[in-house]
Automatic annotation (TrEMBL):
It comes from Xaviernesmea oryzae. The chain crosses the membrane at residues 45-64. GO terms for biological process: cell division; cell wall organization. Its main location: membrane. The lineage of its organism: Bacteria, Pseudomonadati, Pseudomonadota, Alphaproteobacteria, Hyphomicrobiales. This is Cell division protein FtsI (Penicillin-binding protein 3). SUPFAM superfamilies: beta-lactamase/transpeptidase-like, Penicillin binding protein dimerisation domain. The keyword Transmembrane applies.
Length: 580
C-alpha cells in the first residue's frame, strides 16, 4: 500500500471515529433534556396538588370556624319562619278567647337602594304621622343593607304606603299578639314584646314551659298550636276588674285590687290590680300600670291578720271560743303602747275580740302561743315564704330578722309583716275549707288534683270555728257592709296605717277585706283592697268597712250567680224566693 493510500485510510478512520463520538454526545444531551423536563413537570403537578390541598384546607377550616362560632347579629331582621312562628291561644275556663295571633306586616328599608332620604321621610310622614324623623333619616343614610322602619302596621297603613310607590322600602310578614278583652285580664294574661315573646303574666309562663327554647333553636312554625286554657272565668274577671277600677275613682285611691279564689281547688276565677294597662299597647300603661299589686306587691294587711292569730290560738288547744281575755288596759312594751281603736274597756270573749277587732285581745292570744309557735304557724300558712304559682310576678314577703315579743305582738294584728294580698287570700281559704292549704293556680285544676297537693295546716275543728267567726263578724261586726242577701257572706276587715319614712302615717291607710261565701259551706274566698282611699272628710277617713267591704259586696252580688252559687233566704235558708 502506498503512502498516499495509507493516509486516506487513516483519514477515513479518523472521520468515522469523530462522527461516532458526535452522535453519542448528541444522544446523551437529548436524554438529559428529557429527564429534566420530566422532573419539571412532576414538580409543577406537585405544586398544583399542594396548592389545591391548601385551598380546600382553608375552606374546610373556615367552615368549621363558622360552624362552632356564635352567630353575629348583622341586622335586626329575623328569619321568616321565626317572624311567622305561632304562639298558642290563651282561653278562659269556658273557652273564651283571651289572646291570639293575627297576621300583620312590618315596614323595612334597604338604605343602599334609597336615592333621596328626605323624599322618603316626607312621603312616609303622610301615613305615619308620629314618625321619628331624625331616627328614620339616620337609618336611611346608614351603610347597612336592612333597617326596620315600623313594626306591625295596620292593613290600611300598608295599602297607603304601597300607593306612595317609594323605591327601596318593603314589607315583611309577621304575627302580632292580639288581646280581645284589652285591659280586662291584663295582669293575669300578661303581654308579649315586639318579637312575640312573653314578657309578663301567663304569656311569660307559656314561654318558660319550652316555647322560648323551641323558638331559640328554630323549631317553632306557623302552624296553629293547641290553646292554653286558664282557670279564670272571663265573666267573673270582667266583674272584678270593673269593681276594682271603679273603686279607684270612687275612693280616689292610688291603687286597688281584688281576687276570687275557689277554696277547694285553689283556682283563680278572677284577679285584677289597678292601675292596669292594655296588653295591646303595654307601653301606654307605664310602670304603675305594669305593677301587679295582687301578687307582686307586699303590704301590711292590718286586722285581717287577726283571723290567723285567733286561728292559731284555737288550733294550739290553749283556748276555745268560750275563752276570755282581759282587754281593759293598754299593753306597754319596749316604749310602745298597744291599745284598741274602739276599746270596750272590759274582758272580751274570742268572738268579741274578732268582732270588735281588739288589738289587746289579739296580742294576748299571740302571747299565749309564744313567739316561736307564732312564727311557725304563719310559716305553715305560707304567709312568710314566697308563694308558688304559675304567674311569674310573685314577691317575697318580709318579716323581722329576729322575732322578739314586741314583733309577735304587732304581727298578731297585722303590723310588722308584709305579704301579698293573693297570699293572704290563699291562707284565708285554708281557714274555711277544712284547714287545707292549697297553692293557687291560674290553670284548671280538679278537686281530686288539688287534694294531692294540699297540705293540712289546721284541724278541721279549727276551720269550723273560724267559719263561725267569719259569719258572726259578717252579721254583727265590720263585715256588715259586705253582706249580700241570700249568699251568707262573712269575713274580716283590715285597716292598716302605712309606713312613710320609717313611721306609721295615720292619714294613709291600706284597707283590705277578707271574705268567704256562703258561710254554711264556703266555696269561694274574695279579697279586696283599697290603697290610700280618701273621702270628703279627708285622708284616712275611709276605713276598710266603708271602702274594701263594699267592693266585696259588689263582686259577690254580680258574680255569685255566674259561679253557680244558689241563694238562700229566710232564717233556715228554706225560702228560695224573695217576696217583692
Amino acid at each position: 500500500m502506498s503512502f498516499l493510500s495509507r493516509i486516506m485510510v487513516l483519514k477515513s478512520r479518523a472521520h468515522f471515529s469523530s462522527g461516532s463520538r458526535g452522535r453519542v454526545s448528541e444522544a446523551a444531551s437529548f436524554e438529559g433534556t428529557r429527564k429534566r423536563k420530566s422532573a419539571q413537570a412532576r414538580n409543577r403537578v406537585g405544586l398544583l396538588i399542594a396548592g389545591f390541598a391548601v385551598f380546600y384546607c382553608v375552606i374546610g377550616g373556615r367552615l368549621v370556624q363558622y360552624g362552632v362560632a356564635q352567630p353575629l347579629t348583622t341586622s335586626s331582621i329575623l328569619p321568616a319562619d321565626r317572624l311567622m312562628a305561632s304562639r298558642p291561644d290563651l282561653v278562659d275556663r269556658n273557652g273564651e278567647l283571651l289572646a291570639t295571633d293575627i297576621r300583620t306586616v312590618s315596614l323595612f328599608a334597604e338604605p343602599h337602594k334609597i336615592v333621596d332620604a328626605d323624599e322618603v321621610i316626607e312621603k312616609l310622614s303622610t301615613v305615619l304621622h308620629d314618625l321619628d324623623v331624625r331616627s328614620t333619616y339616620s337609618k336611611l343614610k346608614s351603610n347597612s343593607r336592612f333597617q326596620w322602619l315600623r313594626r306591625q302596621l295596620t292593613p290600611k297603613q300598608q295599602s297607603q304606603i304601597l300607593a306612595l310607590g317609594i323605591p327601596g322600602i318593603g314589607f315583611r310578614p309577621e304575627k302580632r299578639r292580639f288581646y280581645p278583652g284589652g285591659p280586662t285580664a291584663a295582669h293575669v294574661v300578661g303581654y308579649v314584646n315586639i318579637d312575640n315573646r312573653g314578657v309578663a303574666g301567663m304569656e311569660r309562663y307559656v314561654d318558660s314551659q319550652g316555647l322560648a327554647d323551641l323558638a331559640a333553636v328554630g323549631m317553632t312554625s306557623s302552624q296553629p298550636l293547641e290553646p292554653v286554657k286558664l282557670s279564670i272565668d272571663l265573666r267573673v274577671q270582667s266583674i272584678v276588674r270593673d269593681v276594682v277600677a271603679e273603686s279607684m275613682i270612687k275612693y280616689r285611691s292610688i291603687g286597688a285590687g281584688a281576687v276570687v279564689l275557689d277554696v277547694h281547688t285553689g283556682e283563680i276565677l278572677g284577679m285584677a290590680s289597678a292601675p292596669d294597662f292594655d296588653p295591646n299597647n303595654p307601653a301606654a300603661g307605664g310602670e304603675e300600670g305594669w305593677f301587679n299589686r295582687m301578687s307582686n306587691g307586699t303590704f301590711e294587711m292590718g286586722s285581717t291578720f287577726k283571723s290567723f292569730t285567733i286561728a292559731m290560738g284555737l288550733d294550739s288547744g290553749k283556748m276555745n271560743l268560750q275563752s276570755t281575755f282581759d282587754a281593759r288596759y293598754p299593753i306597754r312594751i319596749g316604749g310602745f303602747t298597744i291599745k284598741d281603736f274602739h276599746g270596750k274597756g272590759r274582758v272580751l270573749s274570742v268572738p268579741e275580740i274578732f268582732q270588735y277587732s281588739s288589738n289587746i285581745g289579739t296580742a294576748k292570744i299571740a302571747d299565749t302561743v309564744g313567739i316561736e309557735g307564732h312564727k311557725d304557724f304563719l310559716t305553715k300558712l305560707g304567709l312568710l315564704t314566697k308563694m308558688q304559682t304559675e304567674l311569674p310576678e310573685v314577691a317575697q314577703p318580709s318579716q323581722p330578722r329576729e322575732w322578739k315579743k314586741i314583733n309577735s305582738i304587732t304581727i298578731s294584728f297585722g303590723h310588722g309583716v308584709s305579704t301579698t294580698p293573693l297570699q293572704t287570700a290563699v291562707a284565708g281559704a285554708a281557714l274555711v275549707n277544712g284547714g287545707k292549704l292549697i297553692e293557687p293556680t291560674f290553670l284548671p285544676r280538679t278537686r281530686e288534683e288539688a287534694d294531692k297537693v294540699a297540705a293540712q295546716v289546721l284541724k278541721p275543728s279549727t276551720s269550723k270555728d273560724m267559719r263561725f267567726l267569719f259569719d258572726w263578724n259578717g252579721i254583727n261586726g265590720s263585715g256588715r257592709n259586705a253582706r249580700v242577701a241570700g249568699f251568707d257572706v262573712g269575713g274580716k276587715t283590715g285597716t292598716a296605717d302605712k309606713v312613710v319614712n320609717g313611721r306609721y302615717a295615720h292619714d294613709k291607710n291600706f284597707n283590705a277585706f277578707l271574705a268567704a261565701f256562703p258561710m254554711d259551706n264556703p266555696q269561694y274566698v274574695v279579697l279586696t283592697f283599697s290603697d290610700e282611699p280618701k273621702t270628703d272628710k279627708g285622708n284616712g277617713a275611709a276605713l276598710a268597712a266603708t271602702s274594701a267591704a263594699p267592693m266585696v259586696k259588689e263582686i259577690i252580688s254580680r258574680a255569685a250567680p255566674i259561679l253557680g252559687v244558689k241563694p238562700k233566704f229566710g232564717n233556715d235558708g228554706s225560702a228560695l224566693l224573695v217576696s217583692y
